[in-house]
């Protein structure tokens, strides 16, 4: 499917496209500046409650966009594509490499004072890790979502080659409690076999499954299609993130029970 066939709001392109700068400039590009693991999440929560978290004092006013998805959805690869193809997030063929919330600083290519964070997260689903460790990762992510006072957008990556699975639907069920806007992104669309017809079918099926959550007002009805390897759809997603960095705070007020 050609990019011209996918509708994007013009304001996304106009106001957000200059976030993320060229990789050939040493001081620029995405840079990992902070991590929260399962042992430090309580410190984060306590800091947010008391409005006394050193990391936030260092970067006042910076908004956040978190990237969620199953362990094979290509989250880290997509983050690297957003970084003009330069490796920022570690990728691996073995699922479960990302084990912490990794905060990558992004800044406007012209106005360096305009900044925000892209947050990579542990994948859910099929992961090479003990069950108790996976549950700790999930609790860590949910606590961040519940107390993320600077979080303005959740990007939910769905592996386009596999399609929407029960793990993804379960995540959508849980995300409704956090009262944060969610952008669904179909990744790896180049891996979809069967030509344009199959791509349309997968996109339509995904759209049908998320309508329940669109109706509840927290999921964007538009689905972004991406191929990180060929940078298809990356510019548009980068622009959407840039807009989220400039939006007013969206607060969460509830943490769902961990199943």
From TrEMBL:
Alphabetically ordered keywords of this record: Cell cycle, Cell division, GTP-binding, Magnesium, Metal-binding, Nucleotide-binding, Septation
Q: Which PANTHER family match?
A: ENGB-TYPE G DOMAIN-CONTAINING PROTEIN, MSS1/TRME-RELATED GTP-BINDING PROTEIN
| Keyword Cell membrane in annotation | no
Name a single GO biological process.
cell division
Q: Which cofactor does it need?
A: Mg(2+)
Q: What is this protein called?
A: EngB-type G domain-containing protein
Q: Where is the EngB-type G domain?
A: 61-247
């Amino acid at each position: 499917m050609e990019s011209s066939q996918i509708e994007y709001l013009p304001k996304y392109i106009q106001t957000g496209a200059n976030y993320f700068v060229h990789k050939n400039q040493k001081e620029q590009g995405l840079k990992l500046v902070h991590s929260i693991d399962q042992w430090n999440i309580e410190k984060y929560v306590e800091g947010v409650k008391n409005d006394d978290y050193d990391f936030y004092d260092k970067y006042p006013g910076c908004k956040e966009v978190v990237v969620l998805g199953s362990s094979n959805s290509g989250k880290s690869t997509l983050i690297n594509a957003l970084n003009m193809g330069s490796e920022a997030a570690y990728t691996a063929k073995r699922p479960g490499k990302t084990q912490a919330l990794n905060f990558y600083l992004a800044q406007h290519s012209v106005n360096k004072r305009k900044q925000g964070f892209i947050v990579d997260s542990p994948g859910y689903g099929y992961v090479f890790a003990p069950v108790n460790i996976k549950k700790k990762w999930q609790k860590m992510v949910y606590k961040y979502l519940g107390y993320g006072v600077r979080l303005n957008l959740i990007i939910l990556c769905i592996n386009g080659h596999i399609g929407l699975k029960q793990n993804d639907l379960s995540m959508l069920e849980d995300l409704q409690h956090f009262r944060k806007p969610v952008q669904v992104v179909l990744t790896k669309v180049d891996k979809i076999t069967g030509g344009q017809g199959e791509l349309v079918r997968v996109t339509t099926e995904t759209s049908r499954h998320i309508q329940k959550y669109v109706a509840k007002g927290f999921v964007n009805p538009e689905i972004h299609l991406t191929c990180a390897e060929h940078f298809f759809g990356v510019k548009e997603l980068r622009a959407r993130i840039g807009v989220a960095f400039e939006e007013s705070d969206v607060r969460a007020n509830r943490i769902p029970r961990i199943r």
